[in-house]
């Protein structure tokens, strides 16, 4: 599974918005890998930020 897919899956399964550190902890990915994956997901609109520094999957 690609890092972007794994990050998106973690966000979809979470009941609440998560920050990058928590996503890295849950997914087991390195924080830098998570940051890069999130940048890609933000660019294509797959994730949204309901509050500063916290992210959730777009509906």
From TrEMBL:
- Which positions fall inside the Helix-turn-helix type domain? 5-47
Q: Which InterPro entries match?
A: HTH_11, WH-like_DNA-bd_sf, WH_DNA-bd_sf
Q: Which Gene3D superfamilies match?
A: Winged helix-like DNA-binding domain superfamily/Winged helix DNA-binding domain
TM spans, by residue? none
Which residues belong to the signal peptide in this entry? none
Q: What is this protein called?
A: HTH domain-containing protein
Which organism does this record belong to?
A: Candidatus Gallipaludibacter merdavium
According to the entry, what is the taxonomic lineage of the organism?
Answer: Bacteria, Pseudomonadati, Bacteroidota, Bacteroidia, Bacteroidales
């Amino acid at each position: 599974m690609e890092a972007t897919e794994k990050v998106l899956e973690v966000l979809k399964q979470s009941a609440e918005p998560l920050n990058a550190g928590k996503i890295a902890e849950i997914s087991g990915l390195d924080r830098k890998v998570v940051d890069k994956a999130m940048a890609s997901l933000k660019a294509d609109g797959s994730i949204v930020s309901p509050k500063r520094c916290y992210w959730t999957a777009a509906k």
